[in-house]
Each structure stands twice: as structure tokens, then as C-alpha cells.
Amino acid sequence: MYCVSYGSAFAGGSLTVPPSKSAAIRALLCGALSRCTSGRECVIENLYPSEDITATERAAGILCAGGGGEVDCGESGSLLRFIIPIAAALGGRWRFTGRGRLPQRPLGVYAELLPAHGVAFKNGTGGLGLPLEIEGRLAPGRFCLPGNISSQFVTGLLMALPLLEGDSELVLTSPLESIGYVDMTLEVLRDFGVRVDPIAGGWHVPGGQRYERPGYRVEGDWSQAAFFLNMAALSPIGAVVRLRGLRPDSLQGDRACVEVFGRFGLDIGWEGEELVARNKSAREPFGGLVGQELDVSNITDMVPAAAVCAALCRGETRFENGGRLRLKESDRLSAMCRAINALGGQAAEEGDTLVIRGVERLEGGRAQGCNDHRVVMALAGAGLRSKAPVEVTEAYSINKTYPTFFEEYRRLGGIANVLQLG
Q1: What is the value of pTM for the model shown?
Q2: Domain boundary among 217, 250, 278
Q3: Are residues 385 and 248 in the same domain?
Q4: Annotated binding-site residue numbers for phosphoenolpyruvate
Q5: 376 with 304: CB under 8 angstroms?
Q6: Is 311 in the same domain as 183?
Q7: CA–CA dist 219, 225 (Å, integer)
Q8: Is residue 212 located within the same domain as residue 225?
Q9: Where residue 48 sits, what CATH number does that domain have?
Q10: How many domains in the chain?
Q11: pLDDT tens digits for 97-119?
């Protein structure tokens, strides 16, 4: 676990945000498909060596070998849901494994779609877990799925269908959630020379296409930026945080963190290529922060950071339409509710809504990290406005996406003592 001190040690400063995990996984798989379909290598630049990215690099190598194989997806839900239809499109016999909560994360959409298009699907758990085996070659046609499930299923199919011999249609039977992640996928596909045409309720995808691009640079990660905006908001001395490496025009859904934390009361804006954040009312009651109502259906990854900020705002904050948060590395609605209450805050679940009533200062104590990197990183900021130290379990979970997070936190003046318990 780790211990974050309370008080005014957080001085702020500048840091370069790590590259986007979401963009990197897409680029690595498209780079592999460039080698498979056009025989051209694609150099992917600005990668960050997290566990999810390492797992994707291994998987990309297996894809390029062709003919099937066993893919260990680690704990990456994105990798698993992207690569299943891609492997099916390439054909052969494949086996997928994973660990942590990944084996329990739903795959039922593929259990219905893939057999209907010529691919055997076997995992013995009704399409709900790992290990999974598939065999055969995906046939083109019409693929229908709900839009209110994880956008990862949509992305996986959008990446796979261009590889098929004939044209296909991907049709959504309900409104699409996490639109930003699908927009990101479409942008990366265009960058690799792949054509996808919008139609009413979905996309027409011509078959027989090739992926091709000599190089690709991964953009900065807006999801990770949210943790540092939370710290800027909660700094009791109004520390200035300067974030580099972010695209103002990014299609990442979590770019909305600028608006979300701005509505909490954080002063935030661009100065050249830096995003600069400071709470100019830090010494006022509640740090001058106020609650708000949020529809989180398109910004699920930034909810943990925003929830910690909400716990220290004046008034009530409601995180609505958060059902998909229950299907992440942890049930993040419950995880954040329990953690905030354990630290002396006031939080409650109302169905798939998280309701937080702010307090001026947390009491401190121990909260469970739930083996969830985003829960742990969010709670690091809680110590900035706590009467006593905040302890969070399972600090090692940050290795999934951001192994140097605590180093960056300490470099900005935060105090994080990471303890290895025997």
C-alpha cells in the first residue's frame, strides 16, 4: 500500500503526460496489421512501458506470425475485446487468457456475433469469461450490436471488418455510448489508410483492405491528466500544475476533464502548448469548489479522479449513468463510494448513480484500492485535504498503465511513501 501525507506539501510544477494507453493499443494492433496485410513495418513512437502496453506488444507479435496461437491479454479489457474479432478475421485457431478481473468481464456480444459469421466460440461460461477459444475465419455480412455496451466491442469489429473478403455493415441497435473512443478508432483507421463509411445507425466497411503506414506517434493521455487536475484543484496552497504532451483537439472522451474540473472551480486554460491549472480560491472554505451533476456515460475513466474532487466540494455532486463503471478493473462506483466513506466523506449509490456530498476536509484512514489503477491514483489526491494520512491498498496496480505515477506525484511535491508489506 502507500501513504499520502496531508497538508500543503504539494507544490505543483510541470510534467509531460504519458502517452494515451487507448491510442497506443489501437496503433500497435494497426501496426501489426500493416505487417500482415501490406508487408510494411510501422514504427510506433512515444510508447509507455506499462503492463497493458507490454501485453499488447506481445499480442501484436503473435498476430503477425499468423495461423493462430495463444494470447495472454494480462488485465487489459481493451486488448482482449479488440483482438478477438481481429484474430477471427485473420483465421485459424486462437486461445485467449487473462488475469485479475479480466476473466469475469463480459464477452457475450462476441459469443452471439462470431458463431453467426462462421467462427466457433468456446469458453464454457456462456460467453462471459476466459479462457476463450475461437476457430475459423470470420465471414463478412451484417453485424448488429447494442450501442450502450462497451465501445470496445465496436472498435474491435471496426478494426476487423476491413480484413474480410467482402463488404460488411456494423449496425447499432441503440444509441452509442463512449462516442469519443469510437471516434478515436475511426481516426486511427484513417491514419492507417483504412476506409470506413458512415451510414444511418452505423458504418459500411469495404472488405479486402490493407493497413499501411510507415510511422505513428501516440498522443498524450487525457485520462491520466485528470489525476493531476484533481491534485491542482485540491492543493491547499493553490499550486500551479502545468501539463505537456496533450492535444487540444484530441478525440479522447476524457478531454472533457477540462470542462468538468473547470465547473468544480479549477482555473484552467492553455498557455502555448501547456495546459495550466490552479485553484485560485484554494484558501476559501471547501477550497472554493462546488458540486455539479455529471452524465458519465462517455467519461468513465475519469470518474475516480472527479469523485475525489467532489468529496471535497461544497454541496452535492451526482455521477449519473455510470452502469459501465461496474465492469472495469473493479466496480468503480462501489469502490469509490466505499473509499470516500472510509476516509470520512459522504457518498452513496443510487442504482447506477454515485451521489457525493462534499466535506471541507476528509478524516484520513485506510481505503481499499481494489486492484484498480484508476482508483489508487485518484485516491492519491485525497491526502491533500485530509486531517490525517490517507492509506490506500494495492498500490502496485498502477503498473497496469502508469508505473511512474508516484514518482511524478512526489516530483510535484506530494508525499507518497510506498510500503511493501510482507
Answers
A1: 0.91
A2: 217
A3: yes
A4: 21, 77, 105, 152, 332, 374, 400
A5: no
A6: no
A7: 12
A8: no
A9: 3.65.10.10
A10: 2
A11: 999 889 888 898 999 999 999 99
Q: Which domain holds residue 331?
A: 2-18+220-418
In the block, cell 506530494 appears at 414
**One domain, residues 41 and 115:** yes
Question: Over the stretch 241-282, which tens digit does the pLDDT of each residue have?
Answer: 999 999 999 999 999 999 999 999 999 999 999 999 999 999
DSSP β-bridge partners for residue 72 = 97
Of the candidates 340, 362, 347, 346, the one whose C-alpha atom is nearest the C-alpha of residue 236 is: 362
Active site residue 267: no
Residues 202 and 275 in one domain: no
Q: Do 100 and 75 contact (CB within 8 A), yes or no?
A: yes
Helix (H) or strand (E) run with residue 390 in it = strand 390-392
- Report the binding-site residues for 3-phosphoshikimate: 21-22, 26, 150-152, 178, 301, 328
Catalytic residue among 197, 301, 331, 352: 301
Residues flagged as binding site: 21-22, 26, 77, 105, 150-152, 178, 301, 328, 332, 374, 400
**What are the pLDDT digits (tens) for 364-413?**
999 999 999 999 999 999 999 999 999 999 999 999 999 999 999 999 99
363 and 381 together in one domain: yes
* Residues 210 and 322 reside in one and the same domain: no
Q: Which residues contact 89 (CB under 8 A, 6 or more apart)?
A: 137, 138, 160, 161, 163, 164
Q: For residue 180, what is its C-alpha cell?
A: 469519443
Q: What is the CA radius of gyration of the chain?
A: 22
